[in-house]
Amino acid sequence: AQSVTQPDIHITVSEGASLELRCNYSYGATPYLFWYVQSPGQGLQLLLKYFSGDTLVQGIKGFEAEFKRSQSSFNLRKPSVHWSDAAEYFCAVGRNTDKLIFGTGTRLQVFP
Amino acid sequence: GAGVSQSPSNKVTEKGKDVELRCDPISGHTALYWYRQRLGQGLEFLIYFQGNSAPDKSGLPSDRFSAERTGESVSTLTIQRTQQEDSAVYLCASSLDGRGYGYTFGSGTRLTVV
After folding, report:
1. CA of B61 to nearest chain A CA: how many angstroms apart?
2. How far apart are CA B61 and CA A93, in angstroms?
3. Do the chains contact at A96 and B59, CB–CB below 8 Å?
4. pLDDT at site A43
5. Mean pLDDT rounded to a whole number for chain A
6. Residue B68 to residue B81: CA distance in whole angstroms
7. Does the structure show a pLDDT above 70 at B88?
8. Would you call A39 an interface residue with chain B, using a CB distance cutoff of 8 Å?
9. How close, in Å, is residue B84 to chain A by CA atoms?
10. Burial annotation B6-26 (CB, 10 A radius, 16+ → b, else e)
11. CA A12 and chain centroid, separation
């Protein structure tokens, strides 16, 4: 069955600290992989996506993610977190015209 | 328009009433999706329209839920005889050609059934 697992429901970091949000997936073929961010009261915004090629992808707001086929993972990272990064983060998988399958999200809290 | 527009932004309805939620996709986007997001949970796929193809309704939770789309424009999600468990944020997204190049989401409709 196709699924996405985000094992961390809630993460708290201090401003300036590094961040890694985990994402594992189960999919029949190598999927397209996405990270979205949702700020309170807002719609989802695409942070970055992976289709093929270089397994380290750069996104907006200083985020990056690495696709590891052997681990079926697509973890999101940021070297130095800003208070404005506090939000809900969703990992998603899909392929071509398939609908996207989303994880349950990780809520990031940032302390000054 | 410039983005995906959803209306209303908030809707409070009494249990048993019918509700209609509207989504205006980005002009030219052939694919349109509806998702449901319950409090503290991830996004749950409901239905997907792609051009003139038959919609993928595999995510609709019951026959109380239905959706229509006129051509490649506006879509309406209808929930009949609403129940309290229908309370959620309903998100619409559109994409160009239905490919996984990344959706553009609307801000959602928060539905509260009392």
Report:
1. 16
2. 21
3. no
4. 79
5. 92
6. 18
7. yes
8. no
9. 21
10. beeeebebeeeeebebebbbb
11. 16
